[in-house]
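Hi L., both proteins are below.
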Amino acid sequence: MSVEELQNLRDNIKGLISVHSFLSCSKNRNTALIYSLNRSGRPSAEPVLFEIDIDTSIDTKLYADIGQYSSYQTENEILFTVGTIFEIIEVKRQMDVGFWIIKLLLSKQIDEDMKELTAYFENEIGKNPTLLTLAEYLTRMGDYDTARGYYMILLDKVKLLGNKSDIAKLYNQVGQLYYLTGDYKRALKYYEKAINISTIDYRNLGVTHDNIGMVNGAMGKYEEALNHYVKSLDIWKKILPPNHPQIGNQYNRIGQTHNQRGDYDIALENYKNALEIQMVALPPNHPNLAESFINIDLVYFGKKEYISALSYHEKALAIQSKSLPSDHPDIGSNYNNIGRDHYCLGNFTKATHYYGKALNVFLKALPPFHPSIALIYQNIGKLYYKTKDYKQSLENYKKAMRIQETTLPAQHPDTNRTHKYLKELSRLVKDSTSSQDDEELNNISNDIKMVNINEHQNTLEMQYQQTITHGTKLLDADRDNQLLLNVCKSNIDDLNNTRSKRIKHRFFSSKSKKK
């Protein structure tokens, strides 16, 4: 948890907080501690442990014991629903092992802003939710790691699902998970599996064409994307009522592709069709409404009407702030869009602020080589370029290129744009520095793929040492739990071995370079 979030809780003892996503907890304290002390990728965050008191005599549907469905059944997992409210009882620091304990009491209330949205989701899921629907909604709320665990259970038992329709749905959802985490090749692999067994199941066929369209769009293949979106829309119109939300979603997808191609009027027509359906079919705080506002904003942005664009983005953020967790990738994307609006309006200080907020969300919520992170680095680099801070601009474009070369096709528009800026920035930085720096700058220009390995290793070594230190404290605190003791000891040994190998690699690499 960030220092600011922790301080907000400390300042609001006896106050109420609500969760805007599913909240996964464990009845096993030692299991929770392992997750609490793992600060991978967030070295400045404060480790916290939530202790939640529940009055089991109260009849409530705010939580469920899902331990029997978990991929790690020893975790004794409890899942709290969207909109659950807790009273803050106490926040104190556990000095001996270096983490904070936050004591909460489950409230019988539910967030009024979330009640209608929760009812909508309950109706959509049905009275008898399955592991498949649970994983799907965890994915929607951005809890990708938990969702992946449930999908892996289902993939191991795919033959037990019973019919081809359920299998196709599973393949589609696993593909969607990979798409959202930036692994487009694996996403297409599962979508192709789904389409091969969905020839007579029109609903799954419509979903699969839509999903394949999204991957192609992300890879810059706009014609292929549009082809699949139109196929999907034709299917939905045949099997669904005219005001069904899925038809609205499809108009949005088609609009997005036309917008990417610069066909703004056609894009806006499709977006308005989508919004007209969604205003009737969805509750006012539904995330898809926010998506439609964002899409309309992007048209105005493309037409250089930046004040109108900013207005729609702010409407979208107001909905997202009520319906999504604060670190959801969609909120990060919207921060990026708002930053870009301010950049185009010349409000560089505000642009920097929103780009920073977007980057913080993405680094927390997404894998380290996700294309969305590269996009933020591009935008920050462009901002520094505009303000003539060419060294900072160059550093951010280098970070973007490292990611893009890993995840995007060679001819993707974003990759080409980054190459262009790197070439120009290398020249500008070289011209503005002394001859002493010429050799280093020539290396940047000649090999823009170069990664700063030593910096990366230093970061990893720091993270390994933090993990070893926390793990050792945990072992000392609980010598009676032999299973946990063995697992932690094994993990610490592995981390030490890995750290040693990295130090050796760094030493020999340095010697080789000096020769």
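That was the first. Here is the second:
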Amino acid sequence: MKIAFGVCSLGLGHATRSIPVIKKLEEEGFDIVIISHNRALTLLKKEFPNLKAYELEDFPIKYPPKAHQFIPYFFAKSNKIVRSLISGHKNFLKIYEREKFDLIISDSRFDIFHVDKPSFLIIHQLRFMVPTKFLRDLSMFYNAYMAKYFTKMLVPDFKNNSLTGEMSHGISWIPKEKIEYIGPLSSFQRRDMERDIDILISISGPEPQRTLFENMVMEQMNSLNGKVVVTLGRPENGGKKRKNVYYYLPLKKREELMNRSKLIISRSGYSTIMDLYVLGGKAMFIPTPGQPEQEYLAKYLEKRKIAGYDSQDSFNLKELIERSKYYEGFKGNYNALQSVENIIRVISRWT
């Protein structure tokens, strides 16, 4: 059976959380074809050099620098986004005609589905946490509309005691039978290792904010005490930039460093949060400016006393590190392979 696996290219989180699912599907004997774009596709090609891969550009989300600018930006760009989705789907259908997929899995790619084939959407935002209730309701309406094109919507969270809060719960406009809560997805496992790295700073996300974040971190590096490691989230470069600064780390090395770190400073992207939930430990967040979901998740976790956050405009690394002692951190008590098995269980009805 041939499966198309589409992956959103907004940051690297969708790609990293898809890796254990793709590996499991390979183990089960399925023929996997990867469809993605930009750095996410680069990463997936490195992880799966033997798999066929197609480049298909996502709809062009470029977040405004400030959250309050989201509403005018959304209305200014909405037509372009819709046209891009339609164009992306047409291009996917061209790939489909060539490959004749039996089943389709898409991580947050609304343009990758087929009306005549079982199609599954991995998504953690059933409600986009945008600044106004009107837009939040509009996002639910949009997801409810798109849900009719997918067999199931696979939510990488728990039905109860959730990590996403309102983002993926209390959704009234999507039929309950369409939604499957599969549990957090992560490529990582908790390991019993000495925590000999004082601070791991993970820089990631879409440009230009990724580079702005990198520059601000580098300006403050010399003021930090202890062993500090920085990853830049640039898989196209690979390897080490200089001592304890890496352009990009293979997943196994990244898993090791996160297991060894006393404190992790990163974006509050949901894929990172799932990794931290699996590994355990303390974290502090700097949400990507203009990404309402990251700002919501950072506030949600701070309210639960799990982790704190600061804004990119004003963060001070020394102060952020000092504040981390007031938060409980992540417990690290979940094996994410259970979530992968849940996906296999759900799709098995159609395989």
